[in-house]
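Example record

The entry below shows one chain as it appears in the dataset: sequence first, then structure tokens.
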Amino acid sequence: MLHIQTNTLITQSLDQNPAVIFIASKTSEHSRRTMHRALDSIAQMIDPDQDAFQLHWENLRYTHTAVIRTRLIEKGYKPASVNVMLAALRGVLKECWKLGRMTAEDYHRAADIENVKDTTLPAGRELTTGEILALFQVCNHDTDTDGQVTPMGQRDAALIAMLRTTALRRSEVVRLELADYNPMNGRLLIQGKGRKERAVYVPESARFYLDHWLSMRGDASGPLLSVIRKGGHITLNALTPQSVYDILEKRATQAGVKDFSPHDFRRTFAGDMLDRGADIVIVAGIMGHADVNTTRRYDRRPDEAKRKAADLITVPLPK
């Protein structure tokens, strides 16, 4: 347990509680839960009897935050998890400063803790060209009695086309509205993490699928990709991140493609773009990465160089 004085604990009104304010500032329920869990873990590391909303975060100084970082590493958390928890710690400290509970100097010193370098490969796998083709084929073969592609087949093909060519997160694709898409040039306005907006462009090949879906959906305002009820009834209810996962799982099973996650489209996109000479800064911007080093983890070119180098060394074969 860290030795930080906490005997000044009093019940704080929610609108003055830095942890409450910080967690509430997050735009998604998932982010709020993640930050809450992170702050609870840190608070209990400091004092097992307290949680995120009880701890007086304004008492922390650089000596404390530096020890917290070290303890998180020693506990065996993965670098990505440590960095999420450190981000939560910096965030609640910033709220302490904004509420006037810490001086600017104390805040900046306490928050000046470096992230842990993550040298692990990103989870998941890359999809092959053949697998992507098979996914489109099962969507295109989802036809009605007249041999026409069903609304579900059209929508799922449009979803796969966008994930493949724009590297959208599933949380981003379900937030897309019809008004966010410009069919003239393929421009999509994305609402990304932390309320950050970015523009990406759907290439002509993917617009083929998206435009065919929209011809069925109609031009009523609402979600770009929507729920389809039994009988092919198109609603104006938005998909959920889980439903994106379920759609891809269903199509993968139909296509005989081994398990993959929606995020694997992002991994495949980054590797393909970098292989073809795209500027890594541009790729990071398309993917919504704040740090280009995150994108660099998907660069498979160093592995290809290693493979070619390995072929330079040989062993004698039996005669």
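Notes for this example: The longest strand covers residues 233-238. The chain is about 50% helix and 5% strand.
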